[in-house]
Design brief:
Helix content is about 35%, strand content about 25%. It is α+β, with helices and mostly antiparallel strands. The protein folds into 2 domains: about 5-220 and about 335-415, 3-Layer(aba) Sandwich (Aminopeptidase), CATH 3.40.630.10; about 220-335, 2-Layer Sandwich (Alpha-Beta Plaits), CATH 3.30.70.360. Strand 1 and strand 2 (about 35) form a beta hairpin. It starts with a helix and ends with a helix. Bound molecules: (2S)-amino(hydroxy)ethanoic acid and manganese (II) ion (2 copies).
């Protein structure tokens, strides 16, 4: 890099107002409860968000591609087309009662990096890409992190295509219906590196008054699908001692699972967020309940052992209530360490920008976990108010988003090289 190029790179800053305005425009799609968003993957709202994002990418001169998983990959050519692509992004889908920043910030920050380079007339040696990974949240189609898992080769084509929503809709059909089932193959696009900016979704940065988190690892996760089977019965005529009440058994399991999580130490997480009795009548004793246990831990062996204990506890509680429980593992994402070189680049960038930063692990899962299986990867965290996320009140300040985005800009430039 010439001295002039280095000087330019030192003075480049992202456009905070544009980055914020894009967040607010995106938040108008699928608005719930005033400040929240509901854009479940492959829904009409997801399609609308994708169209808005694609329009911005095309205005920025990027070439839009999509693949079998519906991932959107917008490419800015580099001076040397033979070089692998430096990629950044996250996801535009949300939880049913999600916020305006989870995932969205990472996609918009990646786009803002490209537009900042456009504004300054900067060409890079390696191509850059901005990505929206499909179905990170796993609300309608489980598991989550699906688009990135397929792209990383962790799920095969047939399995991906045939994943079903509870209403029977097929993943491949829904991806085609909203117009984003494309034909790019991961082998068509060798990746140099992947960076994901994300709100922290926890309170650590805000409490410490530190604007940037440099993420060094992501803890592991398992989802267990639990099916509890008893017998449907009449609430007025069936004596309490002969019932096989699957709902009562499942409720007792929730209490037991919480106790197991607490006993496994401060790093363990055991949660049930989805819980569905098969019948929904006030006077029917439910004969079947399905729920999902979300189990997380930074240590792979502890995670495996805890997940075994959870499954065994469900079976034992079910038997105590005259029911049966089957626990099936739906997804396993191992704990992942990020690439030391990419982490160091982010630290250098924060230092160059005189931004205080903290190295930290991630409690939430991210598409970056899947990418890190094959590609040098790291993440930037931005503080969010009160650590609240998966909540309509989720909030990140414009200045913090821009600070994190400036770190992303420098890291991507360092990786891609400035031409000239
Ligand atoms: O569940 C997660 O950690 C992510 O928010 N999908
Ligand atoms: Mn999320
Ligand atoms: Mn997210």
């Amino acid at each position: 890099m010439t001295a002039a190029a280095r000087r330019l790179s030192n003075t480049l800053r992202v456009n905070e107002a544009r980055l914020w305005d894009r967040h607010m425009q995106m938040a108008r799609i699928g608005t719930v409860c005033g400040t929240g968003c509901r854009r479940v993957a492959l829904s009409d709202e997801d399609a609308e968000a994708r169209a808005l994002f694609a329009g911005w990418c095309i205005e920025a001169g990027l070439t839009m591609h999509s693949d079998r998983a519906g991932n959107m990959i917008a490419i800015r050519p580099g001076r040397d087309p033979s070089r692998p692509v430096v990629v950044a992004g996250s996801h535009l889908d949300t939880q049913p009662h999600g916020g305006r920043f989870d995932g969205v910030s990472g996609v918009l920050a990646a786009l803002e990096v490209v537009e900042t380079l456009n504004d300054a007339g900067v060409e890079t040696e390696a191509p850059l890409a901005v990505v929206n990974w499909t179905n990170e949240e796993g609300v309608r189609f489980a598991p989550g992190l699906l688009g990135s898992a397929w792209f990383a080769g962790l799920i095969d084509d047939a399995t991906l295509d045939d994943i079903r929503a509870p209403d029977g809709a097929r993943f491949a059909d829904e991806a085609a219906r909203i117009g984003w089932r494309g034909d790019l193959r991961p082998t068509d696009l060798p990746l140099d590196s992947f960076f994901e900016l994300h709100i922290e979704q926890g309170p650590v940065l805000e409490r410490a008054g530190v604007p940037v988190g440099v993420v060094t690892s992501v803890q592991g996760l398992r989802w267990l699908d639990v099916a509890v089977t008893g017998m449907d019965a009449h609430a007025g005529t069936t004596p309490l001692d002969v019932r096989r009440d699957a709902l009562l058994a499942a409720a007792a399991m929730l209490v037991e699972l919480n106790a197991l999580g607490r006993a496994a130490g401060p790093d363990a997480r055991v949660s049930v967020g989805r819980f569905q009795p098969a019948t929904d009548g006030p006077s029917t004793i439910a004969g079947r309940v399905d729920f999902v246990i979300d189990i997380r831990h930074p240590d792979a062996a502890t995670l495996a052992a805890l997940s075994e204990r959870c499954a065994a506890a469900c079976r034992a509680v079910a038997a105590h209530h005259g029911c049966e429980a089957q626990a099936t593992m739906r997804i396993e994402v191992p704990p992942r360490d990020f690439d030391a070189g990419c982490v160091a680049l982010l630290e250098d960038a924060a230092q160059d920008l005189a931004l205080p930063y903290r190295r930290m692990p991630s409690g939430a899962l991210h598409d970056a976990s899947n990418l890190a299986a094959n590609v040098p990867t790291a993440m930037i965290f931005v503080p969010c108010r009160d650590g609240i996320s998966h909540n309509v009140d989720e909030y990140a300040a414009p200045g913090d988003l821009a600070a994190g985005c400036n770190v992303l800009l420098r890291a991507m430039l360092a990786r891609a090289g400035m031409a000239g």
